[in-house]
Amino acid sequence: MLSRIPVTRLSLGASAAARRLYSVNARAGPSKAYLKATHTVTAPSPKTASFLARGEQYLLPVYARPDFVLEKGKGSWVWDVDGNKYLDFTAGIAVNSLGHSDEGVSKVLAEQSSKILHASNVYHNEWAGKLAELIVTLTQKEGGLGYAPGSAATQGTASTPKVFFANTGTEANEGALKVARKVAKERWASAVPGRKEGDYYNECTKTGIVCFENAFHGRSMGALSVTPNPKYQVPFAPLIPGVQVGQVNEIDAVNSLVDEDTCAVIIEPVQGEGGIHPVKVEFLRALRKRCDEVGAVLIFDEIQCGLFRSGTLWTHSSYPVDCHPDIVTMAKPLANGYPIGAVLLRPSIAETMTAGTHGTTFGGSPLACAVGYHVLNRLSQPEMKSQIAETSTYLRERLSHLPKWFPQILESEIRGRGLILGLGFRDEGLPGKVVGLARERGVFLLTAGKDAIRFVPSLNVTKEEVDYAVDVLESSLSVV
Ligand SMILES: Cc1ncc(COP(=O)(O)O)c(C=O)c1O
C-alpha cells in the first residue's frame, strides 16, 4: 500500500475558533511534505500488467492513461487493483458530485434495476416525469431559464418549461442545436406572409451557429463543429457549415457575430475544458439582446459548470433574467456517474418539438431518471449548498497563496467560481507535468486548456481532502 494520510486536519464541524487557528494566512510558505514521490509506477505488478496488456490488445487507443488500473472508490478516494489509494480531486471530470460508491445512489440503482431498468420511449415510465418536474421546479425556485430566484412554479402545459432526456452531454448539445435549427426555420418561414414553414425548410438560410474560442461542447459531428479546437476538429473535417467562432467577453463584436442568418448561439457560462474562463454577465446580456433582435436561440451549456458546481443550481441562476438562455444543457453529475444528459427548454422554444421530431432509445430510462432524481434532490439541499460555498472559499483561499509563492510559474488570478476553479500557468508545458507529479504523490488533478490546472472535486469533498490535494500541489510546484 502506498497511500499517505493527509498531514493537516480540520473537520467540517470544527468551531469558528478552530477554523481561525487553522487560517492559511499563517502559512509561511508552500508545503514540502510531499517532495518525494509516493505513488510512482516504475514497473506494473503482474496483475496490473495483465489488465494493461488486454486493454492494449482490444481497446481503441484514443486515451493516454497512466499505468495503473482502478478497481474501486469511496467518497473522494479510489484504489487500484494493487491496493494503492489515490485522492480523486477530479470527480471523474466533474461527474461524481456525491463521490464514489455513494450508498444512497447504490441503493437506488439496485432497487430500480431490479424493478425496471429500460423499456424505451415507446412507453411512459414513472421517473422521467418526476426528474423533469424536479429540474423545472428547482430552476423556478433557484433561478434560471428566464426565472428570477424564488419564482412560483408554473401551472399548465403550455407555460411550463420542458425537458428532453439524453445519455451524454454531447447528445444533449446535439438535441439543443437541432431544436434551435427548427425554431429558427419556423421563425424565418413565419416572417413572410403566406409562407408555410414545412414547405420552405430547405430554402431557409437561418442556419448559422455561433460558438466561442476555448469552448468544448462534445465530439459528435454537430457538437464538434462548435468545439473550435484544431486538435479535435481537423482530422474529421468537413464539419457542419455555417459556424462562426467569436471571442468570449468581446461585447463590441456581438452584433456582427450574431446576424439574421444565425439560428443558435451556444456558450458555456464558465468554460471548463478550455481553461476555466468565466463569461462576464454583461457579455451574456449582450448575447441575449442580440439573439432576441435576430430571432436566434441562446443555448447555455452547463454540462460542466451547472448543477451546483459553480455554487448555484445553474451558473446563471443568480444573474439577472435579461441574460438568461432559451435552452440549458446538462449531463455530467446529474446521476453521479450513471450516464444521463438533458436539455431544458423555455416553453416558447419547446413548443416547436412534436412527436417524432427527435428521440433516443436509452434517454430517460427509469434507471437513469430514478438515480438522477435522487442525486439532484440531494445536491439541492441547503446543507449541501452551504458545504459547497464553505469548501469553495477554503480551496480558493489556499490556492490564492500559490501565485505569491511561485510567481515565475503561476498567473496571479485564481480562475472560476464555486468548485470549478483553475490555476493559470505562465508556461504551457507545465500544467501536464504538475498533474503527473501530483499523481505520483497520490492526487488526481486535471489540466484545462493549454495553460491551466483544473479543480473539480466531488461537491462533498472534505477540508482534510482539500488540504491533502493542495499540500501535494504545493510540493509538486516546488519540485518543478
Ligand atoms: C461543457 C461541456 N459540454 C459538453 C461536454 C461533452 O459531454 P459528454 O462527454 O458527456 O458527451 C463536456 C465534457 O467534458 C463539457 O465539459
Automatic annotation (TrEMBL):
One of its GO terms (biological process) is L-arginine biosynthetic process. Its cofactor is pyridoxal 5'-phosphate. The keyword Lipid biosynthesis does not apply. It is found in: Mitochondrion. GO terms for molecular function: identical protein binding; N2-acetyl-L-ornithine:2-oxoglutarate 5-aminotransferase activity; pyridoxal phosphate binding. It comes from the Eukaryota. Keywords: Amino-acid biosynthesis, Aminotransferase, Pyridoxal phosphate, Transferase. InterPro entries: AcOrn/SuccOrn_fam, Aminotrans_3, Aminotrans_3_PPA_site, Class-III_PLP-dep_AT, PyrdxlP-dep_Trfase, PyrdxlP-dep_Trfase_major, PyrdxlP-dep_Trfase_small. Its EC number is 2.6.1.11. Pathway: Amino-acid biosynthesis; L-arginine biosynthesis; N(2)-acetyl-L-ornithine from L-glutamate: step 4/4. Its main location: mitochondrion. PANTHER family: ACETYLORNITHINE AMINOTRANSFERASE, MITOCHONDRIAL (PTHR11986:SF79), AMINOTRANSFERASE CLASS III (PTHR11986). Belongs to the class-III pyridoxal-phosphate-dependent aminotransferase family. This is acetylornithine transaminase. It comes from Coprinellus micaceus (Glistening ink-cap mushroom).
